[in-house]
Design brief:
The structure is a homotetramer of 339-residue chains. The first copy, chain A, is an alpha/beta fold. Chain A folds into two domains: 113 residues, Rossmann fold; 181 residues, Dihydrodipicolinate Reductase, domain 2 (2-Layer Sandwich), CATH 3.30.360. Chain A is built from eleven helices and 15 strands. A seven-stranded mixed beta sheet of chain A has the order 12-11-7-10-9-8-15. In chain A, strand 13 and strand 14 form a beta hairpin. In chain A, helix 4 packs parallel to helix 5, helix 5 packs antiparallel against helix 11 and helix 8 crosses helix 11. The first copy, chain A, starts with a strand and ends in a 5-residue tail after the last strand. Chains in contact: A-B, A-C, A-D, B-C, B-D, C-D. Chains A and D meet through strand 7, strand 8, strand 9 and strand 10 of A and strand 7, strand 8, strand 9 and strand 10 of D.
Chain lengths: 339, 339, 339, 339
């Protein structure tokens, strides 16, 4: 029996369309040829796990292959710019994880390199590809809620990351690494730019994070160019699950995303009526990651720019950079101060 | 640029695992070679829609291809047995849509043919592969709710099918075609067999259905071998969406599946706070269909039996057949009467 | 300081209206003068608990008082007719708990007595006075869901009653004592009469109930005069709380009541996201009981008939009586058989 | 038939206890003797609406009555101190609407007056008496969520108030008049004091509010003495209803209050699945207002201090005053600056 099961579809009615769609979704378009990680063991294990034919401890081995069309950059944030520049030089199309970089200046460097090389630079703000977020944005775009006047975002992880990851020099810390998703959504959903931020934060649950310069809980006030206001709350101790909620209030209505349970199931016991745990990272947005990759692939095939650009990455990083400065200096910071 | 985008993954950390999983899910394992439908135009359009290389107006063209390992039978229910028998004779592995057939006798015929040919016969009770249903069953299996004592199922479509489809001779009508999912879930979740049914039903919303011998609303009482009780309600006029809900009450707890909205979004306007429409058929269970196909493919690869068998199909059809008789004769019917 | 605190309200603006409403609701209209119970201790304790000036072990002591305008009959169901007849003879207005009686014949006796005496007989179907049920009925009456075609009711208690209470001769058992609420709602919400019932039930969780002739779980199919269908499920082992849910599906929409948690609060822990326990009996419908009493009092004051009559009580009892017979005889029973 | 219906309760079993409780709740304890408002017509209408025997255009007429034990001060906030001082001088027990006053200094004046007169001063933070909030606080107090680290509050009205009311000199404006509830809950639920605030706000929907010095949307960052963080968002344009939500995240869990729909009912139509409108002011907290009044009455009867004191009122006003200053000066403000 071959590695790939070859199927014939008998019937082309309603339910056959469902099968056709599913088979089409899971059966073509992309091929993962190689994985690289400086931790050779991690690279090898990943290759085994997903049936990737080749692995390497050096990302240049990926860039050297002529049959690789595109790369996904999923290395630590502090290495993004180096890898993006090398990939651009090798002529690869690029999908880079968020944040693109920790400073506006570093973003500019990456953007320039891809611009010069004439390759795509798409950034992994996958929430934009989630069905619920897409419907929310569409409702706003249609005018269903009137002029947006308030943005609210909640981004919480169920536990802290590794200390190595949390280091501000590596990931950017809580405000940058986790906040970046909300800063991007804030721009995208409000159709507006953030001009001022004020952050309050503290290290309250994991004292060891303070030792590497990070915090575990924060709230960030936002002011938009239109005068609209907003707030983002971030936490590393949402022990009940991966809790992502977003809300836009408009002059004549509002929209909310995120009641987020893992499945559509309820347990009812003498202890209460419970949802299961909220979604784990990677789980809630599994469909969004797939849609993001399809959009990336589609843009390459059709020769169009990707829908999330380096400029989007730069704008979100600017907000994060201003939030970090606000926390450090205990005052509201204009985003223009970091541009 | 080739048809298939070849990707390299740089990084093998946490987020790289998400990308690896998604790319693995959407990039290998199955290949859809051909589609057939007696309606040549439908076959051709389906081929175009999903990039299927070949189409035919004769399902035998699928069976004649040596490079086809397996078939998905998605024709009208009344033709299932004929197609399954021919596919079995051609040595194809078979995934047949539900219900396998409209009578126990017809199921037996299909099961015997696949048994004699030594091919798999899996039946498309895709709800079993839905994450929420899997978690519900696991909770029950773990004893979280104690001994199951009541089953409740709601299966409602947003509109009637075509009159041609609704004909009892073609699809089996409301009780068989829609009820079959609940009859299967009842057996699977309760871990018990249905021994008696009593159906009440009527044609209340679409008078034209009565002319082809069907009804549009029904309730079916169930009695299980253990003495447990149950009820399934079915409707063709849930104009608000595809409404699928299931509940098992046990001696010490309960589990519910199905609060079912299309996305995780809420709209808030002066008219109220609204979910979007409940899920359309094919949409709510898109993930379940994919998991079902993966299980089918996995069973072929690993040489194991599929997890949903012809015997399961037969047992569910028996309940449906008894429900139809109960409706016709206005009395409770023992399932053993139709065996 | 006097027993009653005398208050002055300063301000008559928006918030003052809220205070006025609340003070008006809690401060006048009714006076509870006396309580009677054959269990003298229970009567005495109840008098103490609620500050009732007098108690007695003989209900005739209540009827003999000239200053008692009305009585609430909250004795065991099997004694309702005797007490109602005596109260009617004493010229008292009557609010009797549900069910009025266990047979149609007994209902007729009570109704005739109150009719002859010219006193009101209101029956305690308090769910009709619940805000959610009132809004549901209003939506249906406005035509929001089109012609009602299916009724679904869930009535579950968190534990069994006492064996003495459960006895069929005393309370009527599960089908009558708990089912009566749903049988009443079915008539009231559907605007239709039940003509046929089919019950399946069993004693599965509390074997001791079987010894007093009762069951603990049941499902009851309903057929309405219009052809509409319905189902009621009843259980004594909803260990997670008092679970009351009702649903009407119409040709062009539907309405559901009952997502029932005790408060508007959620707990989020590593074990999941939990509502608190569903509502305890008396708690979920506390507001409905108050509205019911206000309606009773208002009807007396204004000289109008109460909105829930002896005829309503009789119709619901008839359905319950038919359901009991269906369970006993294992066949669908026409409601007309018990009239 | 007398004004008050005199009732006898026959039976003292389970359901009789429910009737006893309800009758006790609606039938005694308080008597509303008089209402006063400078707008004579409003006073007269209120008297008629709630059956209050006397009305006056001068609040001193209330204070002059010897048979008035207590007063509820529900006048514009800017008049609270004057009325409270006069009521204290008249020896009346006082329940004053929130906020007690617009500045800490004014609060001190009112507190001193009631202290000198030896009368109670309770302040109307009615949310503390809501069942859901009480359960939330109990969970926190029991340690269910660990150490509280983040407070989130949403307070939104469905429309703007009158321009006269909105004037900062009259009600204190959005930050004070609406924010005060959240500032109080923040202290009460977190068991902590707010030490720093930062407000962003704007007039975005109702330009006429700007003319009287108010805004319609705001977000306020909070920092607590323990280092915990928080945010409150306020809006006057939640056109979908009165939207009150509160959340406390702790080190090992969290609690949320407020999924707030008007009733426990859902409508399902082709336009979606909708709750009814969220609760109107006075409606969501009707039960809380009643519980607040009962606590006030109970404290008078039993000679104990009320559970919400002038000190609580002062602390919440301080936070509001700091928030107003933060908005005016565009910087974080220490609460100690206004003490």
């Amino acid at each position: 029996m071959p590695e790939r099961i070859r199927i014939g579809l008998i019937g082309a009615g309603r339910i056959a369309q469902v099968y056709g769609q599913v088979l089409s979704d899971i059966g073509r378009d992309v091929e993962l040829l190689v994985v690289a990680d400086v931790r050779a063991e991690a690279a090898a294990e990943t290759a085994t796990r997903f049936g990737i034919p080749q692995w390497s401890a050096d990302y240049r081995a990926v860039l050297d292959r002529n049959d690789v069309d595109a790369v996904i950059v999923a290395t630590p944030t502090s290495t993004h710019v180096e890898v993006v520049k090398a990939a651009a030089a090798a002529g690869k199309e690029i999908l880079c994880e968020k944040p693109l970089a920790l400073t506006v200046a570093a973003c500019d460097e990456a953007i320039a390199a891809t611009h010069d090389a004439g390759v795509r630079l798409m950034v992994g703000f996958m929430r934009r590809f989630d069905t619920a977020y897409q419907m929310a944005r569409q409702k706003i775009a249609e005018g269903s809620i009137g002029r947006p006047v308030m943005y609210k975002g909640t981004g919480r992880d169920p536990r802290r990351t590794t200390l190595e990851f949390a280091r501000r020099e590596s990931s950017g810390g809580l405000l940058m690494d986790m906040g970046i998703h909300d800063f991007d959504l804030a721009r995208w959903l409000m159709g507006d730019e953030v001009v001022r931020v004020h952050a309050e934060g503290a290290c309250l649950v994991y004292p060891e994070l303070a030792e590497v310069g990070d915090i575990d809980n924060a709230v960030v006030n936002l002011r938009f160019a239109s005068g609209a206001v907003g707030n983002v709350d971030l936490s590393r101790n949402a022990v009940y699950g991966h809790d992502i909620r977003t809300e836009v209030l408009g002059a004549t209505g509002g929209v909310r995303v995120g009641r987020g349970t893992n499945t559509d199931a309820l347990w009812m016991t003498p202890d209460g009526v419970a949802h299961d745990l909220m979604l784990l990272p990677g789980h809630r947005f599994a469909g969004a990651f797939a849609a993001e990759i399809r959009e990336f692939v589609r843009s390459i095939r059709e020769g169009t720019p990707p829908s999330v650009t380096g400029a989007d990455a730069r704008a979100a990083t600017a907000i994060g950079q201003a939030a970090v400065r606000s926390l450090d200096e205990g005052r509201p910071v204009m985003v223009s101060e970091v541009l």
